[in-house]
Structure formats: C-alpha cells, structure tokens
What we know:
Oligomer: heterodimer
CATH topology of the largest domain in chain A: FAD/NAD(P)-binding domain
CATH superfamily of chain B: Cytochrome c-like domain
Shape of chain B: globular
Number of helices of chain A: 11
Low-confidence stretches of chain A: 1-27
Amino acid sequence: MKPTRRDLIIGAGTIAASGALGVPAVLGQAKARIVVIGGGAGGATAAKYIARDGHGAIAVTLVEENETYQSCFHSNLYIGGFKNYDQIVHRYDAPTAAYGITLVRQRAARIDRDRKEVVLGDGSRLPYDRLVLSPGIDLKYDSVPGWSQAAEEVMPHGWKPGRQTRLIREKLDAVPDGGTIVMIAPPNPYRCPPGPYERASMFAHILTSTGRTKARVVILDPKDSFSKQGVFMPDWEKRYGAMIEWLSPRVHDGIKSVDPASGTVVTGFETYENCAFVNVIPAQMAGAIAREAGLAPAGGYCAIDPATMKSTADPAIFVLGDACNAGDMPKSAFSANNQAKIVAMVACSELAGGPAFPARYFNTCWSLVGPDDAIKVGGRYEPKDGRIAATETFISQPGESDEVRRQTQAENLAWYEAICADMFT
Amino acid sequence: MQMWIIPSCEGARRSSAAGSGLRRAWRGLGFAVLGSAAALLICDPALAAEDQALGRYLALECSSCHQLSGASVGGIPSIVGWPEAQFVAVLDAYRRKEREGQVMQAVAARLSRAEMVALAAYFGALSPKP
C-alpha cells in the first residue's frame, strides 16, 4: 500500500514543489505511522521535522512521560549561577500544536518488534510503521563500588536533569571553606564528554566567588585524558589556581570504593575522608527500552547504519542521540538534534515520497570555564566504512584572547536559544 | 576562474554553479552572459523544486544555531532574508577560510557552490517573524 502511494507521489514529478501533498483521498488509506520514544534533543526534533516534512502523509506520535523537558545541556550553567532553573525548562505544547504531533504522556514500557508496536506503561499499544527511538542513557549504578541508586541522594550524579541537578547545587552551596569536593568522572563513552570538566569549572567559580577559596575540587578520572583537556587545564590554573585537581588512573591508581554514609572515597593511592560533597558520575549505557528490545549489546549502545540512523538490528527502528553508537560524534544535544534531521529526511523519503539526500552530520560542544569565558570543540561527520566518521574537526586553543572567549560564550548562549527554538517552536 | 551568478526567473528563483549544478542547468531554457560570468537562467519548475528541496534539506543543519524565525540573541547572527549573493559570498569566504570562525569554517568546508546557492535561496526566501 505505501509503495503505491510513494510511487504515485514520485510519479507526480514535483515532490518538493507540491508542498502540501498528502495522502490521496481516493486511496482511502491510513497515514503512515511514526512513533517517537523520548522527547529530548533527538526525539523532540525528529517528531517536529517528520511532522513538518511529511506533508500530512505521516501521523507522528511522541511518547514522553514528563510534562516538561529539562535540558541537561546548560544545567551546568544553572549550577554555576549563570542561569535560573526555569531557563532550562521547556514545554511541548507549541510544537505539538503547530505540527499536529500527538503527545502521549506515558512511559514507553517496551517494544514489540515482531508486531511493530510500542507497549505503554498502562499496557496499551501503539502500532508503528517506523519507530524513532531516542531514550537517552541509563546510569550503571553498579559501576562504582559502594555507590547505588539508593545513594544518589547523598552522592548525587546530576547526570539526568531535575531533582538531581538541583541537588548538586544544594550540596555545592553547603560546602564549607576548606572543604573537599570529590568528583568521580565517568569512563567513555558517556553523555556530554566535556560536561564533568565544565561542571568542575562551575564548582570552582561558585566557591571562589563566594569567598571559599580554601575549598578544593578533586576529579578522580577513570580515563587517561578527557575532552578539551589541553584547554581546560591551563584555564583552570589561570582562573582558579590550584583549586581544581585532576587525577588520572596513573595517579590515583583506581577508584576502589565509596562510602555514602561517611562521605569517604577510597582510591588505590589515597583515601578522601569527610568529603564535603561527592559527585559520582557513573558509567552509562543506552536506555533500558533499547537494550531490552535487543538493539544494544549488554551494557552498551545501539549500533546504527550511519547513512540512515537505523538500527542495524531492525530496519523499522531509528536509534539516535545518546542511546546510539554514532562513531566519532559525541553524545551531545547538538548531535542528537542533528541526527534527528537525518532521521526525518530518511523517514519522509520512505513514507511520504520526500527527497533523499546523502547524510551529513555536524556537532559543536561549548563549555563554560568561567564568566564570559567559554571554549568549544566540534566537527563535521559523514558515513564512512560503516560508521560516522569525522571529516573536519576544530577545537579552542589555550591562551586565546578574552575577546575570543567572550564571543565563544555568546555563541554558546545563542546556540541554546536556537536549539530550543528548533525543538520547541 | 569560477563562474557563478544568482539570476532570478519569475517565481522559480534559481541559480547554478559551474560545477555540479551545470549538468542540471543545461536542462534549463537558456543562458545569458553577464560580464565575465555565465548566467544560467532556469525556468523549469521541476528543477527549481529540486534545488528548493536541496536547500530545505541542507538548512536543517543550520537551524540548530540560526533560528528560522530570524530571532537572534547576539553571538550567532540571523541568516534569514539575506540577499542571495551576499549569503553565498559569506559562506564561500568561510569555505576558503578567509573569514574567521571555527564553526562556520567547518560547516562550509565541504559545501559545493550549488549547495551554497541552494541554501542562499532557501534562507533568502524566509522572512523574519516579528
């Protein structure tokens, strides 16, 4: 049935010019159905652009449990006092109304791939012709010995927005002068590669700007290096002196355990007792719904076809954003938003006779180091040898002028406004 | 020397490049010579549609940073409603790294002239929203 409609539309020969071409009424057939799971940077963007460019031939349903979207990106700016919390909260009303997207405020419980149905939390089912899966990450609560989900109130991660983000700021505000904050950074691959280091910068900014200059921030990293390290570290020294201390595994000799009750962190080299605050950012993996559907290896991320963002395990399912393995592209909101546009192009091509073009990708990650002082890293990407590979990359340089850093922060703030407009208007 | 111009043709605004756009351009109705550049005037609506679709697709990438409404909070300029020649000239300056800007240099690095022209036409046709 759908090939018939597609052939008909292609046969008209003026696909893009025809604009509002919908389902020919004479065929009397239902619209193609796309279900989008997850209303984040990947899912919200995909839902909008599929609905916009499907020209009425595709019924788009967005499944999102939460009433509002609270962005992880720029949550560090909230922690650093550069944004109010309400500035990172967004609603779905405008795009769902403007583009005719059906919003289902439920948890997506599981995917029945055989029947091509999404099973919702209340047991009801949503059939799909294509599924767009953008569930984000799950935390590996067992990746740091002694830490657990039960301990996340005492030793918060702050790696999913909401209560956890606010908790980080509350704990930061309670740190006494002379107190020690220990951050346990995550192993690759994880959401927002520069995020932990931007956050450490925000810790130091709040501590110094409130006169707690004897406090310190110790980052225990399971990695030997980190994103934008060559820019972050000289900037930290220049701006915050010795306040931020980054330790690689060669120095700390492994994170052995934490004790939430006493605020203790034990490494192979040293024990940190009576920490003012321990921020555990654990290892991560694709959201449960993707793993349980057999789209990701145990504890891992979903393999995708780099030309289409489709799961290599199921051609009816696109996986995008943090839940997929996007090769050289980092897990960022920019990446997810960008990948969603490839998904929309491919989906509209297959289901609504839209034009098809070769996939190209882009990403930029901005990080704030201090007031009016931001750095960035990014690149252009294309499918190559079965993965998404970088073709051009760029990164801020150490020692850039204050003016360059000011401009980079202005870009960062303007990007946030733009990507949110792209998702929510 | 690169040959490229930005002609208009009654509603089907279309321009092409001496490179990849030429093949399609020859299917148009004719050409004229303006100064030292060849002007390719295309009035075939199907061709115009093809380029509109290309511009619309490429523009998807831009709207992550440049708002389609034309709104701007500083830091990243509006690119809505620019004259097409100016739009192409700026992109091309980024492509040749004659204009500063790491992000835009990477964006433009692999854009062909035809793609820049398609983008210019797409954004040029948008109006800022109040």
